[in-house]
Amino acid sequence: MKAKKHDYEAGLAVISTEKIQDPGLEPHRVRMTDKSVKHEQSANRQVAALFLLSAFGSVFSIYAYFAFPITEDLATVRANNLWLGLGITLGLLGIGIGAVHWAKTLMPDAEVTEERKQTRGSEEVRARAIEIIKLADQESGFTRRKLIRRSMYGALALFPLPAIFFFGDLGPNPGDSLRHTMWKKGTRLAKDPDGTPIKASDVTLGSIFHVIPAGLAELHDDRLNEKAKAAVILVRVNPAELIETEERKSWSYDGIVAYSKICTHVGCPVALYEQQTHHLLCPCHQSTFDLVDGCKVIFGPAARPLPQLPIAVDAEGYLIAQSDFDQPVGPSFWER
């Protein structure tokens, strides 16, 4: 639609009823696979090869799962991630690129325009639509291109198999295992990772310590699992700033408080402390906890406060636990 020049000069916006001409479709470009049987057969083999590459990637990821096991050595974690990721990548890319290459080189690419309708079509129109879908299936060559069809079936059948092994490695349902950690009455608080016990006098106002139970370093088989549950954040604030319930007034010592380091959203480590506001921040999804008010959630997706570890001081001045956490550590959904 357009307006005349003198209408603009007069400061008026005039809408014309003149229709814009339909530009029509661009000239159809014939593909090489439409003109040459040789190119068509080559594209057919290429698509099948991509599907087979996907199948190989899926099988290789299962092999890598067993060939590169994860141990306490960090290098094994990198190797496991590298080769597993490579296999899964091949599995995904093979299927994706193969499907796109099939559509672009072998399936019909004639340009079609259709009028849009806002109402439900008649039964005749709907029946015709089903016929068109069936015709498109025939034209795509899915039925007659056996090499592509069989290779695609193989890729799709093998692709989900790695997930069976990966999900199985997540371990059994935790049950009530998250209700119990290494902390018990008299266990000393120690620095992470060297295991040096911490005295109350070592914790200055505004300082923060990443804490593990004393004796954790001596464990072997379950050391990482226990650390994942028992890790603690230790901070000292002005005792006058603490907002404590009657039940929890004895859980801190001269302004020193200890809370689980495991975020109650999805279990990331809460490791960032803002000294001026006394906020603890989880870097994964920005859940924020108020350290001086029972570590209640003040922002983010976490559903409950961080569990508090009751602490005291022994005869030698070392910080010790009074008991285990009062509630399960980690994500809220484990207890539901």
Automatic annotation (TrEMBL):
Keyword annotations from UniProtKB, A to Z: 2Fe-2S, Cell membrane, Disulfide bond, Electron transport, Iron, Iron-sulfur, Membrane, Metal-binding, Oxidoreductase, Respiratory chain, Transmembrane, Transmembrane helix, Transport
PROSITE patterns: RIESKE
GO molecular function: 2 iron, 2 sulfur cluster binding; metal ion binding; oxidoreductase activity
Ranges that cross the membrane: 47-70, 82-103, 152-171
Cellular component annotations (GO), alphabetically ordered: plasma membrane
Entry-linked InterPro entries: QcrA_N, Rieske_2Fe-2S, Rieske_2Fe-2S_sf, Rieske_Fe-S_prot
Membrane topology qualifier: Multi-pass membrane protein
Localisation: Cell membrane
Domain Rieske: 229-320
Pfam families named among the record's database cross-references: QcrA_N, Rieske
Residue ranges that the Swiss-Prot or TrEMBL entry lists as coiled coil: none
PANTHER family xref list: CYTOCHROME B-C1 COMPLEX SUBUNIT RIESKE, MITOCHONDRIAL
Entry protein name: Rieske iron-sulfur protein
Annotated organism of origin: freshwater metagenome
